[in-house]
Write a structure and sequence with these properties.
CATH architecture: Alpha-Beta Barrel
Largest sheet: 9 strands, mixed
Distance between the termini: 24 Å
Shape: globular
Number of helices: 11
Helix content: 25-40%
Number of domains: 1
Length: 320
């Protein structure tokens, strides 16, 4: 299914330390007008895109977001997703408007909510925001109350990785209706390099905590996903290689991302992208999954080196 990732605006009501988007570049307008957004939604549907994801910045800052969602459904998109911090959704008004515009198609609309800790002080630190944590939790409650599908998007950072099992328990207890949880290592963008050094964890120590969290969630029949923008070598996810394989199978599709500056193909699985942004050790050439693996981020290798990489003698992917 062809997917259209539509960044409606650059503005946000949080200022996350790991933000891949950043602030609006000089000379670029900060958001699409409603008319521009509608024309773009229609154009991409005519080009054969069947899934649309509204992103930002923070898409709920667009007053006409409910109308844009309704228009996307009317155009025939089979899936409509909103990537949000859900802060503004702590007020039911936006969600009630979405229900009003097309109440019959609630199951087509889903929300992916960023929540990076179950501890307020950690969440506040990573989002560089105050007074948003409890609003995000309330926003998730409201999404579920209105009958929409919700998933949780969780960044893995130095400040939260040891709490991954407890975070999983928190979600299972507070939001058992959550459709899935997506874990993501940070996508290292150049405008955040100085900050990322403090929040990007060494990968090998994360493994046991993430593995325990995944087991807890999967045991409770909660689907676990791994974000394509932060994928790492399989040898640093031993026992969880199935998550990487699923990411490749589900996300390695025709997908584009569009904002007011540019429209590009999703790059995360291309050889050119990996060659420009990632690196392997000399040992990797003999690895059984060398062709599958994109390597380590060059940013990461400059900090931690390549010693963590351990080539496979045999592929961990059962169907191969």
């Amino acid at each position: 299914m062809k997917k259209f990732n539509f960044s409606l605006l650059w503005d946000c009501n949080e200022d996350c330390l790991f933000c891949a988007k950043g602030h609006v570049p000089p000379g670029v307008k900060s958001r699409f007008s409603s008319d521009e957004a509608i024309k773009t939604i229609f154009k991409k549907r005519k080009e054969g895109f069947e899934a649309i994801s509204f992103d930002g910045g923070e898409p709920t800052l667009m007053k006409d977001l409910p109308k844009l969602i309704a228009f996307a459904i009317k155009c025939g998109y089979k899936e409509v997703c909103v990537l949000t911090n859900a802060v503004l959704l702590s007020d039911l008004k936006i969600l009630e408007k979405i229900k009003t515009y097309d109440s019959k198609d609630k199951k087509k609309v889903s929300f992916s909510v960023s929540l990076h800790s179950h501890k307020e002080e950690v969440a506040n630190y990573l989002t560089a925001s105050k007074n948003t944590f409890h609003k995000t939790l309330k926003g998730i409650e409201n999404i579920l109350k209105c009958g929409f599908t919700v998933s949780i998007y969780h960044i893995i950072a130095s400040q939260n990785y040891k709490d991954l099992p407890n975070f999983a328990k928190f979600i299972l207890k507070k939001f058992p209706e959550a459709d899935n949880i997506t874990f993501s290592y940070i996508y290292p963008v150049s405008h955040k390099f100085n900050t990322l050094k403090d929040i990007y964890p060494k990968l090998l120590p994360v493994g046991p905590y993430l593995k325990k969290a995944v087991k807890l969630l999967e045991k409770s029949d909660t689907e676990v996903r791994l974000s394509s923008c932060g994928i790492i070598p399989p040898c640093l996810m031993k026992g969880m290689e199935h998550l990487l394989k699923r990411t490749h199978e589900e996300d390695n599709i025709e997908s584009i991302t569009c904002d007011t500056a540019t429209t590009d193909k999703f790059p995360f699985f291309s050889e050119i992208f990996n060659r420009e942004n990632k690196i392997k050790s000399s040992k990797c050439a003999a690895c059984a999954v060398n062709d599958f693996c994109g390597g380590l981020w060059k940013f990461y290798a400059n900090i931690y080196g390549l010693e963590e990489l351990k080539p496979y003698k045999k592929s961990p992917f059962k169907s191969e």
